[in-house]
């Protein structure tokens, strides 16, 4: 059991880092699972990969609790109004995922949750990040604060989030890229991505857990500890990863993540080819 807990902690570290950086948590978890495998059934592992995201989400809520809480003591009427407006924008941005991504999620997971499609998604969006950053090099963003983010733009960012239904895309990568294309600053893009993740990932993880139990599965005590260890680790690591990204985007662009995605995608493609040959 100790070995399984240690594996779960490692998965939590990977989740905590890659969930927020635009480099695809799915791609990294797939790669890690090629070499470090939990000795659990496939249904549990499928659920595990999604539910441990709850730990990462709790980190966002911890860091931004005062900012996201409209009932926070000391907030002025204007600050309360802006907080409610922010939540309204987040809810609007969730609509495309509810209408489009949710109905087709299982189909995409069944047909694309493999190393080669994930590797291709990593490379394609890596190239997109580099190209967009080069294109925007001398372009001033139109939206520099969340208060100035139009509701229409929030909805369109939500449409970009739908693209993350393809494994390897990265939910944060799709929304950040979309926000930048739509004219937001990198800081606004990152912040809105964090906030949009709260209802999106809570809902997705919750549905995954409910489906797991409705299918007649149950958790052993060992599996409970595995989930808790991974989720707690993801929470703690996410606290660091989120603060790192928010500080990073104040002075840097996302080009380095584009190159990282291309390199990782190439490694996965080469590994897949060698596995197929040998």
How would you portray this structure in words?
With 278 residues, the chain is mainly alpha-helical. Helix content is 77%, strand content 0%. The chain has 12 helices and no strands. It has helices at 2-18, 25-35, 42-51, 53-63, 65-68, 77-112, 115-135, 151-162, 171-181, 186-214, 221-248, 255-277. Helix 1 runs parallel beside helix 11 (221-248) and helix 7 (115-135) runs parallel beside helix 9 (171-181). It starts with a helix and ends with a helix. The mean pLDDT is 93.
How would you concisely characterize the structure shown here?
The chain is mainly alpha-helical. It has helices spanning 2-18, 25-35, 42-51, 53-63, 65-68, 77-112, 115-135, 151-162, 171-181, 186-214, 221-248, 255-277.
Q: Which value, in Å, is the CA radius of gyration? A: 19 Å
* Mean pLDDT score: 93
Give the termini distance in whole angstroms.
Answer: 33 Å
Q: Please indicate the percent range of residues in DSSP E strands (runs of 2 or more).
A: under 5%
Strand element count? 0
Principal-axes geometry comes out as: globular
From N to C, what is the helix and strand string? HHHHHHHHHHHH
Defining key terms:
0% strand; mainly alpha; globular; 77% helix; 12 helices; single chain; 278 residues
